[in-house]
Amino acid sequence: MNNIRLFYDKSLSINFSSKLDKSQSHYIYKVMRVGIGQTFSLFNKNGEWEAKIQNYKDQAVDFLVIKKIRSNENNKEIIIRYFKSNGGETNDKTTWL
Known about the structure:
Shape: elongated
Structural class: mainly beta
Order of helices and strands: EEHEEEEE
Distance between the termini: 46 Å
Strand order of the largest sheet: 1-3-4-5-2
Number of strands: 7
């Protein structure tokens, strides 16, 4: 598999078949020269999948998702808390921590 990864905003699953948009198709087929039968990666908020090029027709790449590479397990919410302290001083200077 190549290290070529594309963001795909729609839902993906194994055996899912669809077309890339014109700009992504151009990038995969003409710029990166991934040919019919070769693989590349698609990812979205749910994870990353390996896809295989089925066809290139009318400036669009037809692909088939063949396996899931990884799930997106980093959906943890990050909470940043801060407070302002004057450090016990009596003047108007403040320190941000």
